[in-house]
Amino acid sequence: MLRLTLLTLALLCSTCAALFTIWIVMPALSYRLFQVAVAASEWSLWFGALGLAGAALGLLALAAGSSWPAWLALSLGVAAVGLAMIPPLDAWRVARANKIELSLRQYLFGSPVDAPASIERTIETYAIVEGQTLKLDVYLSPLKEELKRPAIIIVHGGSWSAGERNDYPQWDEWLARQGYVVFDIDYRIAPQPNWRTATGDVKCAINWVKDNAARYGVDPARVVLLGRSAGGHLALLAAYSRGEAALPPSSDVPDLPVRAVVAFYAPTDLKWGYEHPANERVHDGPGKIRDFTGGPPSIAAEVISLASATSHVNSNTPPTLLLHGGHDQLFRDEHMTLLTQKLECHNIPHRALLIPYAQHAFDYNFNGWGSQLSRRVVLDFLRLHLKNA
Are 238 and 272 in contact (CB under 8 A)? Predict the structure, then answer.
């Protein structure tokens, strides 16, 4: 009876751990399995602990009498532990190369990384265009000193057709605690094609933040765009295409500059992305680009070029930070390389961080390795490029 119980628990723990951790390295077969891959990569040590428990129980079962199920449990448990170690080992190498300190305690238990602060959150309307009301959330940390603070405008992802503001609230609150005023915005996701309207909405938000700078103690000369995925693309495009007649703000307002731009796992060259999709079982990249731009490159070549950040790099391009995961299954990490090459050609200040193990949306786990690495790099970049003029 004891041996049967040990075998059952060993197989249950080891099999569950292996079924999760395998997706750290295997391409997902569906969007749901991609979500499992994100969870397995960013919480891998917990699944590794489950595998270790299964392996230990398998050993106990072997001690009670050898059998192939015990060997299977031991093998699966050991394999799960090995797979679970890939993210922390990769993260450690990246951290060492970038002189970043990682916290195991925070990873495991979510220990606070900053002193608690009271964050004020308000909701504002920043534009009404074609009958649609566009809102933004404002995150503000009260300060005793009377100063003008930098502002960060957050642009959400969602393949240009989904998603909503405030989808990463822990990040918004953390940025506010660092002394930034955070504006997390909506933009029009329908009707499509919305390459011009979505970009124009982001530009309207820039104008609104600068117009309302005095209300929130913002320095209008120090405004940054930060976007994720499709939002990263829109942040880059809005920042890079200032003054271009084909990409104006959505309403009759000036097309104003930003000081810098940060993009997480963003598609930067839509033609290249159309021809080189990541994992179409997970994400119909070509279809999303067709919907966004109005057609494939054979029909909408001019629009696709116009809607690509790589087409707009010039000597006036603002400093740029790019972050991408090496296992991204929505947009391949070559997007980061393509844009980095353009930035280097024009001597634009930039930084790129590749996290080899990481999946798309790796920063969703605020305490995970990817978020810990990213927070340090983002903070260093902002402090460097948002110094008082």
Answer: no
Place of tokens 């810990």: 372
Alpha helices, H only, 85-128: 86-98, 104-109
CA separation for the pair 55, 10 (Å, rounded): 7
d(CA 368, CA 342): 31
Vertex 135 angle, CA 132 and 139, to 5°: 175
Dihedral of alpha carbons 112, 113, 117, 122, sign? negative
Helix (H) or strand (E) holding 182: strand 181-185
Backbone angles phi, psi at 34, to 5 degrees: -65, -40
User: Is the alpha carbon torsion for 174, 177, 180, 184 positive or negative?
Assistant: positive
Directed axis angle between helix 86-98 and helix 369-385, to 10°?
20
Token reading at 109 = 């238990």
The predicted model scores a pTM of 0.95
Of the candidates 190, 212, 202, 188, the one whose C-alpha atom is nearest the C-alpha of residue 129 is 188
Of the candidates 108, 14, 3, the one whose C-alpha atom is nearest the C-alpha of residue 56 is: 14
CA distances from 214 to 151, 202, 219, 220, 283 (A): 12, 20, 8, 9, 42
Answer whether 331's CB lies under 8 Å from 278's CB.
yes
pLDDT for 324-346, tens place per residue?
999 999 999 999 999 999 999 99
Type of residue found at 87: P
Residue with tokens 């393949």: 159
Phi–psi pair at 39, nearest 5 degrees:
-65, -45
Whether 207 and 174 have beta carbons less than 8 Å apart is answered as: no
DSSP string, 286-303: HHHHHHHHTS-HHHHHHH
3-state helix, strand, coil in the chain (%, to 5): 50, 15, 35
pLDDT in tens, 100-140: 999 999 999 986 545 555 788 899 999 999 999 999 999 99
Tokens found for residue 123 = 């909701």
323: enclosing H helix or E strand: strand 320-325
Find out whether 369 and 340 touch, Cβ atoms under 8 Å.
no
Read out DSSP for 239-287? HHTTT-TTS--SSSS-----SEEEEES----HHHHHHS-S-TTT--HHH
